[in-house]
Write a structure and sequence with these properties.
single chain; Serine Threonine Protein Phosphatase 5, Tetratricopeptide repeat; DNA Cyclobutane Dipyrimidine Photolyase, subunit A, domain 3
């Protein structure tokens, strides 16, 4: 935002403390526009337009966001199009990968195609995650149509369907999303091998603010080691986005065929017994509405109440971040506008959303064992092995845990929040996973079950941060050794009494008791 707004923000914060004044400031500290559902898209479009050069010409693109996957770097002379292979970042605006793909296409004066390769199954994902993703992709299709950019949903895993599409369209260059998980890396490598030798393929990290390979060139030990590396580069990478343009070299309108969403729905073969999460409405517009509700209503309390599951202080943005339906960079830019008013809350939120989230990508990118005990530090592996034969006071099967049938009413309530709402409060995620370690026959089983339950039920499952959360709780990654005790060894311990000192445990239990008891 313009520097001359800083003094205005400080002045407005000292004028009055009446409820009416405070509400007005919460809506926006830097704009007079009242943000509501009808104009939220235009509100952010205005911000993007402000990033365009006033004298015309191209916007500046930081090429450090890009890394080459293919050996060939030049596009072939007979190139007839550029493909953006969308997967992790399912949005049109605020998307550096799409912006880079359009930049390439405009320079070559060729059409731009956006493709999404839809696997029939994806690890433990259910219809809950698939429907959220598909509804978001429907908005992607509408937004691209306005820009005369065709959107193609190819049915199947990328290595099976994308190379043929590229050959049929005589595509000269492919831009891929960055996702450091095993399955996507495998797809990327297979696609690269199947492409013609003269087709260039690159990857753009449009998910992290500081690209993963730029933040660090090695596996980081903890937040304290990666924090200064990220912080030192934020001024370079935390910039406003320019808008995606109506494509000047579009394919003829009749060639842009609508996606057959009924065919897509029939193609997916996932567990349909998990209900959709009614509180989370998919798509970029709904994600931006949630962002606005956060900065207007909950951000002020984030600093003091974010670890209290009975308080409504969280952003609730993780489903949209996970699917890439909104950008974490957009959220950071917006939240920073309130640092003059809610400095502690803004600092705490940016720490979690930037440093901690990007630490998760770092872990999965540089550690191929990101979801197993082999990925833990040597001290953690040793202490868990030393205590693997310790007697467990309670041992539960995966089925009992999934059904929230344990002796612990707080754990049952947290599990049922996950099952019914597709989310779990961040503080309780730690407690929840650590109890699974305590109540299963081995740390390997505990880790497997925690990952399974998170990936099956959470809207933000199958994500680097989900794996890191389970690994932190059970395997001690990004943590240190603590006082040794049975089962846990030196892994950080959490218990029911400790939660009682943090928040009103009984109030949280009562909220979910009817659901839990109905399953008993």
């Amino acid at each position: 935002m313009p520097e001359n707004n800083t003094a205005k923000r400080k002045a407005s914060a000292t004028k009055s403390t009446s409820p009416a004044k405070k509400t007005k400031i919460e809506v926006s500290e830097t704009d007079e526009v009242q943000i509501c559902g009808d104009n939220v898209m235009e509100f952010y479009a205005k911000k993007r337009r402000s990033a365009l050069p006033t004298s015309g010409g191209e916007f500046k693109f930081n090429k450090k966001r890009v890394r080459m996957i293919s050996k060939v770097q030049e596009l072939p002379s007979d190139c007839k199009g550029i493909v953006y292979w969308m997967f992790r970042d399912q949005r049109v605006e605020d998307n550096w990968a799409l912006l880079w793909a359009q930049r390439m296409a405009l320079k070559q004066e060729v059409p731009l195609f956006v493709t999404f390769c839809m696997p029939s199954t994806y690890l433990d994902a259910t219809v809950r995650q698939y429907r959220f993703m598909i509804e978001g992709l429907k908005q992607v299709e509408k937004d691209l149509k306005k820009l005369k950019i065709p959107f193609n949903v190819l049915l199947g895993e990328a290595p099976s369907v994308l190379p043929q599409f590229i050959k049929e369209k005589n595509i000269g260059g492919v831009v891929a999303d960055f996702l450091p998980l095993r399955k996507h890396t495998e797809w990327l490598n297979k696609v690269a091998k199947k492409l013609p030798e003269n087709v260039a393929i690159c990857q753009v990290d449009a998910h992290n603010i500081v690209p993963c390979w730029e933040a660090s060139d090695k596996l980081e030990y903890a937040a304290r080691t990666i924090r200064p590396k990220i912080t030192n580069k934020l001024t370079t990478f935390l910039t406003e986005f320019p808008p995606v343009q109506e494509h000047a070299h579009a394919v003829p309108d009749p060639a842009i065929k609508p996606v057959d969403w009924k065919k897509v729905e029939a193609f997916i073969k996932v567990d349909r017994n998990v209900s959709e999460a009614k509180w989370a409405k998919a798509g970029t517009e709904n994600g931006l509405k949630m962002l606005e509700s956060f900065v207007r209503s909950r951000l002020r309390n984030f600093g003091t109440d974010r670890n209290n599951p009975t308080k409504n202080a969280l952003s609730n943005l993780s489903p949209w971040f996970h699917t890439g339906q909104i950008s974490t960079q957009r959220a950071a830019l917006r939240v920073r506008e309130f640092r003059g008013k809610f400095s502690d809350s803004v600092a705490g939120f940016l720490e979690e959303m930037i440093v901690r989230r990007e630490l998760g990508d770092n872990f999965c990118f540089y550690n191929k064992h990101y979801d197993s005990l082999k990925g833990g530090y040597s001290w953690a592996q040793k202490t868990l092995n030393d205590h693997r034969s310790d007697k467990r006071e309670k041992v539960y099967s995966r089925e009992k845990l999934e059904e929230a049938k344990t002796h612990d009413p707080l754990w049952n309530a947290a599990q049922w929040q996950l099952v019914t709402e597709g989310k779990m409060h961040g503080f309780l995620r730690m407690y929840w996973a650590k109890k699974i370690l305590e109540w299963t026959a081995s740390p390997e089983e505990g880790l497997d079950i925690s990952i399974y339950l998170n990936d099956k039920y959470s809207l933000d499952g199958i994500d680097p941060n989900g794996y890191v959360g389970c690994m932190w709780s059970i395997v001690g990654i990004h943590d240190q050794g603590w006082r040794e005790r049975p089962v846990f060894g030196k892994i950080r311990y959490m218990n029911y009494d400790g939660c009682k000192r943090k928040f009103d445990v009984k109030a949280f239990e009562r909220k979910y008791a009817p659901f839990v008891n109905s399953q008993a």
